[in-house]
């Protein structure tokens, strides 16, 4: 108390303001006013700081915590204690009269270790605070009420078999919810309750280790172990709580066991016709290990069949596969014996002994089979000149039956390899001879197959390839390499080269081609041109004089003799075409005859064909366009289904309009009397003669018409056209057609006029414009008459 009081005094000396400092033993009021220090000791306001409460209270009454008391409480009942903070009113309650603090229920430190609350004193009657609100703490004292718990209920671990003593397997960890800072409630010690004597556990760390040596930890004897580890609190002392867990430990395999054959002697039979790589039999060996430690390697270490057989490992079954390495022959050797050995591919030197590997004997018996004939050679190669006579023997093949029966063999040609039937073979001795003449220039090589078949068993046959090379002889004459055509100027120089020619020969002499060029003897006396041999299988064509006349002779044919130097010598005559042309002073051609050179002006054949195709296509387009125009359909006058219209008969013609004075006589409107005289019979169109009577026309009442009775005249014509599709007028379409929806004049259909007897007002015709002015005047006159 004295120390805290001094601390408060020092703090006061550093400042001139007035404040209060609450100490644990006394409440000292320090004031500093106007430089004068006043010290006054007063009694402390609260007599508490923090409370302790034991967890897991089991009593039936409220658990007493402590008492709160203030110096403002004089015992007269005017003071009221008020509690707030964590759990106030629910977990913790205070007697408002005397300050006694109680816990209302059982508390668990592992859920919450302490509670922070606040208390104050107020006047019971006025509610005024008598002391400032002060904070205090209620701490829970821990008891050992929680057993240790492991992080897993079951652990799994593994360790290699034959491990040394003390090899770490795994580590288990347990925790205790009790307070580690208070007593030994959370101090844990590990022990093993099940798993002796194979494993042990470190008491403080929980590390599990092997407890036996390599000889006792053998997977092949026991693979799985179940160990129970316990963790005890209170440092392992008596009365502590215990938790346990299970650890499942598996010994992993190491290659500590060599493989062994299931039997010491194996016997197999193999047909002599087995091809290379054929499987003869399977060798089984066992290994106590598992996984990769069971992978085996089989080898042949001795025996007379080391060159004829081989052995390998089936990667899926780990069996030894004995296979044929070379072709077998029962007649040469009917049986073989080999010694085989097996070992692991991955050996663990620490455990595998250095003794001998497991060895077994394999006996192989070769079975005799009926084999096809066998040729002495895998293939045959012969050469023949192309001029040999038909029937000449090219070469021979030989085959024999390898069986002991030694059946007679017949020979034949596989015609699929000789579709031209150029060769044949003697069936008894295998001699191949010619059936037709050969030509090296056509085919230089012939590849045929000769088939050998057993006479007693035709199903047994074999074939061999025979390659025949045709040798060249000089049977083709050399000729120009291409068709040569050139020109010569009318004015030139004698001895000027106008063309260089070369030659080709279908033959292929061993020393190469050597050609000689010369002018044909019959041309030498003309002296128009000469030939100069260049010595390199080419020759130059030279002019024989200085002037030529295109008018006198426009084309010269120069014969050139080409000769080779092979035996027998061959020669031919090639013709060079020389045209005479007019040239400029530099020797450039200016004019030849139109047929002289291909460079003459004009269109090529391809250009003419293209022009002709374009013309045909253009003609087809015009014809198609014209046909489409003729087939164009006339659109209907009325599209709407609801339109009311007359029965209009279309005659595919059109009225002449106001200028047409022949189609309809307008004078009938002006002189009705004259028109009545001509209306004795039914009116007919002048351009159509009706053939059938479509309607039975009712009798038409002919009313007497006075001059100017235009209305009666129009009504008469309306009735005639209502009942007769062939009745005039000529321009009936223009007169009675429907003008369409939206027309200012609406419909002029005569259908309405024929069926309606009501009077109509035609004054609106005056609003239609000058084109309807005359019609409006007519109807106005009619109304005035009525």
Automatic annotation (TrEMBL):
The keyword DNA-binding does not apply. It is a single-pass type I membrane protein. Keywords: Calcium, Cell adhesion, Cell junction, Cell membrane, Glycoprotein, Membrane, Metal-binding, Repeat, Signal, Transmembrane, Transmembrane helix. One of its GO terms (biological process) is calcium-dependent cell-cell adhesion via plasma membrane cell adhesion molecules. The keyword Ribosomal protein does not apply. GO terms for molecular function: beta-catenin binding; cadherin binding; calcium ion binding. It is found in: Cell junction, Adherens junction; Cell membrane. Cadherins are calcium-dependent cell adhesion proteins. This is Cadherin domain-containing protein. The lineage of its organism: Eukaryota, Metazoa, Chordata, Craniata, Vertebrata.
């Amino acid at each position: 108390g004295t120390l805290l009081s001094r601390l408060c005094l020092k703090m006061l000396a550093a400042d001139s303001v007035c404040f209060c400092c609450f100490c644990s033993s006394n409440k000292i009021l320090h004031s500093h006013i106007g430089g004068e220090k006043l010290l006054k000791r007063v009694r402390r306001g609260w007599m508490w700081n923090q409370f302790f409460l034991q967890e897991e209270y089991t009593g039936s009454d409220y658990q007493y915590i402590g008492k709160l008391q203030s110096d403002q409480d004089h015992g007269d009942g005017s003071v009221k204690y008020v509690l707030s903070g964590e759990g106030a009113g629910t977990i913790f309650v205070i007697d408002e009269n005397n300050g006694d603090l109680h816990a209302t229920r059982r508390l668990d430190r592992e859920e919450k270790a302490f509670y922070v609350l606040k208390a104050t004193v107020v006047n019971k009657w006025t509610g005024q605070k008598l002391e400032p609100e002060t904070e205090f703490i209620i701490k829970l004292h821990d008891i050992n009420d929680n057993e240790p718990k492991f992080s897993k209920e079951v652990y799994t671990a593994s360790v290699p078999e034959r491990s040394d003593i003390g090899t770490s397997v795994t580590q288990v960890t347990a925790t205790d919810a009790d307070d580690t800072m208070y007593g030994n409630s959370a101090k844990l010690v590990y022990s093993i309750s099940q798993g002796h004597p194979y494993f042990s556990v470190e008491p403080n760390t929980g590390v599990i280790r092997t407890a036996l040596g390599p000889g006792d930890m053998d997977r092949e004897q026991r693979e799985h172990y179940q160990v129970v580890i316990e963790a005890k609190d209170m440092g392992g002392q008596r009365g502590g709580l215990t938790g346990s867990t299970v650890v499942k430990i598996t010994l992993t395999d190491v290659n500590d066991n060599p493989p062994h054959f299931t039997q010491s002697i194996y016997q197999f039979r193999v047909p002599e016709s087995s091809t290379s790589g054929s499987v003869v039999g399977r060798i089984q060996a066992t290994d106590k290990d598992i996984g990769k430690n069971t992978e085996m390697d089989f080898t042949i270490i001795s025996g007379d069949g080391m060159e004829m057989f081989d052995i390998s490992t089936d990667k899926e079954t780990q069996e030894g596969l004995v296979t044929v390495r070379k072709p077998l022959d029962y007649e040469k050797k009917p049986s073989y014996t080999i010694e085989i050995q097996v070992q692991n591919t991955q050996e663990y030197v620490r455990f595998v002994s250095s003794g001998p590997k497991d060895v077994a004997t394999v006996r192989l018996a070769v079975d005799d089979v009926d084999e096809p004939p066998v040729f002495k050679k895998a293939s045959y190669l012969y050469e023949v000149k192309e001029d040999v006579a038909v029937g000449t023997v090219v070469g021979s093949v030989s085959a024999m039956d390898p069986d002991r029966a030694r059946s007679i063999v017949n020979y034949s040609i596989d015609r699929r390899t000789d579709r031209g039937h150029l060769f044949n073979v003697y069936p008894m001795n295998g001699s191949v001879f010619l059936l037709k003449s050969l030509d090296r220039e056509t085919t230089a090589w012939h590849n045929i197959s000769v088939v050998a078949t057993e006479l007693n068993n035709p199903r047994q046959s074999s074939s061999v390839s025979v390659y025949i090379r045709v040798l060249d002889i000089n049977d083709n004459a050399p000729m120009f390499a291409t068709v040569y055509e050139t020109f010569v100027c009318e004015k030139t120089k004698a001895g000027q080269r106008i063309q260089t020619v070369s030659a080709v020969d279908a033959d292929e002499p061993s020393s190469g081609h050597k050609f000689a060029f010369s002018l044909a003897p019959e041309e030498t006396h003309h002296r128009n041109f000469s030939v100069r041999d260049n010595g390199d299988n080419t020759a130059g064509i030279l002019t024989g004089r200085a002037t030529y006349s295109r008018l006198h002779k426009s084309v010269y044919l120069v014969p050139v003799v080409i000769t080779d130097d092979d035996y027998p010598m061959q020669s031919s005559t090639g013709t060079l075409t020389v045209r005479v042309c007019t040239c400029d002073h530099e020797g450039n051609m200016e004019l030849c005859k139109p047929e002289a050179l291909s460079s003459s002006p004009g269109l090529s054949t391809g250009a003419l064909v293209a022009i002709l195709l374009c013309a045909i296509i253009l003609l087809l387009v015009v014809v198609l366009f014209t046909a489409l125009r003729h087939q164009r359909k006339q659109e209907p006058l009325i599209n709407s289904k609801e339109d009311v219209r007359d029965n209009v008969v279309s005659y595919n013609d059109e009225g002449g309009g106001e200028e047409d004075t022949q189609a309809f006589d307008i004078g009938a409107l002006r002189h009705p009397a004259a028109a009545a005289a001509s209306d004795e019979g039914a009116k007919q169109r002048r351009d159509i003669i009706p053939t059938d009577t479509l309607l039975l026309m009712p009798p038409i009442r002919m009313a007497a018409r006075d001059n100017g009775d235009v209305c009666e005249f129009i009504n008469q014509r309306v009735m005639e056209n209502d009942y007769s599709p062939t009745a005039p007028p000529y321009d009936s379409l223009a007169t009675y057609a429907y003008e369409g929806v939206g027309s200012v004049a609406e419909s002029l259909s005569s259908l309405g006029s024929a069926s309606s007897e009501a009077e109509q007002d035609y004054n609106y015709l005056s609003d239609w414009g000058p084109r309807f002015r005359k019609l409006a005047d007519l109807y106005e006159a009619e109304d005035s008459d009525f």
